[in-house]
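Bug: token stream looks shifted between consecutive jobs. Job 1:
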Amino acid sequence: MAKPLFWGRFIKNKLAIIGTVFIGLSFLIAILGYLITPDPTPFANNQILSIAAKPPLFKVRMLLVRKDQIIVQRSFIHTMLFGKESTYNYLPIDSFWFAGDSVIIKEYSAGAGDEPFISKYHLADVVYPINSPAVLTKNREGAYTFRDLNKNNVVITNNELKQTILRKQIVTKIFFLGTDRFGRDMLSRLMIGSRVSFSVGFISVFISLLIGISMGVSAGYFKGKTDGIIMWFVNVVWSVPTLLMVLSITLVLGKGFWQIFMAIGLTMWVEVARVVRGQVLSLREKEFVDAARVLGFSNFRIIVRHILPNTVGPIVIISAANFASAILMEAGLSFLGIGIQPPVPSWGNMIKDHYAYIILDQAYLAILPGIAIMLMVLSFNLVGSGLRDAFDTKMG
């Protein structure tokens, strides 16, 4: 009976399929980004300190007060990639009532013994972005004329303003995974944090493949002194602990988004180079390579057209493993404070911000990003194992 093809063997591996589905869903979330996050502000950084460190499924009423500034409308793609500034300030409230031309709120209080704060806002200030003074004139019918930020005169009655507030600006928000210590939505931060994990994985793996394949192919194909020099350099880099190497590169390049990608990528190429070298050493002795030399093909063509395509399997497998390692390394560096810098949400710095809560009754603040890291790394390891089995022609 003929052995099943590669995809047939891969699909039979249920754990690998589960890992692939999880990675696919996470990647879709990372791509859609701010279009599907509950908090679409840049970096999901809408801080509401009065509701800090609230548990999952926390629900609160809020008054949305229009900001006194013009928010530039961005394109669909810009919003998806970078988010959009909120046009409102979010004020958690326990209750509210209208008094004349104002709305009075009792601000949210976490405990029964807390002294509630009473705040008062002019109706027009809540609904429109208005210059000060807000109200310019008042006619006999009780309507107000004021100038908005576009310098247009707007006439509206108190009742119309009240109805607008009741319909659109008294809302109930549910925080499905609670809030962090700064009152930011945990679910949104986790979703945007997946972008960092995929970005560091893709960019670091790309850099490692670019350097590793070049080094490995050169060493394996040309052998001799070229192999000796390259392998000496590989062994020197290999002997330095990975974390120490990343720390050194990070200190040289500085802290930041792109620097951490470069630092991780420049330390992961060694494994790729060793694997590719071993494959090329074996392949260069095959009959089809000898035939290509006899036909007068250049070394470049032999490498690109005949040798590299036969190393795809091992390269894909090690790339999956390196992807998982890059995610772990980025999380570790961010936890140490030398990786992705706030306010950019990273699963590593989310753990760093909340690890002290583990000994309190809010351990979930550190556990949730930890679970996200664990599931992502596990998924890539499962996919890597599935690819290894699928490429193994000895397996039925």
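Job 2, same session, no restart:
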Amino acid sequence: MRQKHFIDSHKLATGIFILLLMAAYHQWDNPTAWIYLALHGTYGILWAVKSRIFPDASWEQPTGWLYGALIWGGLSLYWVAPWLIMARAVQAPAWYLGMCVSLNIFGVFFHFSADMQKHITLKLQPDQLISSGLMAKVRNINYFGELLIYGSFGLFAMHWLPILILMAWVVLVWLPNMRKKDRSLGKYPQFAEYQKRSRLFIPFLY
């Protein structure tokens, strides 16, 4: 088994889990619940498709069932948002739903487009520093896309807990991965100049 098998299976299970929550809490007439299902469920399917068409090499590492269970447990924290929506029968105002959907679309664009750029560039020109296109100004624009995606999911719940969970992921997992990547890219002579003119994670800010 590889890490991606556990990640992909969890992503695919998300839509089913949300449907079960809708059934358990009788939220069939709740527009917020349906829009959330459409966005998060579709994102899980798209992730699995992306994993087959342009996979991330970092998730190809072999792993055991114990670590796989840890992956599932960590990712399941993102299921707190739909649980809160269903359990509290959250019905967000129309303008708020529109804002969350817009954030999600921007996030999917940045995340998937950056991953595609990285995959194609490394396939055609292996061992090259990628410092153009979407990554010209932000070295980890794919993570910024994920921030928008999961930020939108958290906002749907209209509760502080999903946002806190997302921030924990950013601090404990994402940022260490980004710094590890920077250390790895330090082998390229042009990286120092690229690092000076680009942001680590968030456009214009950080």
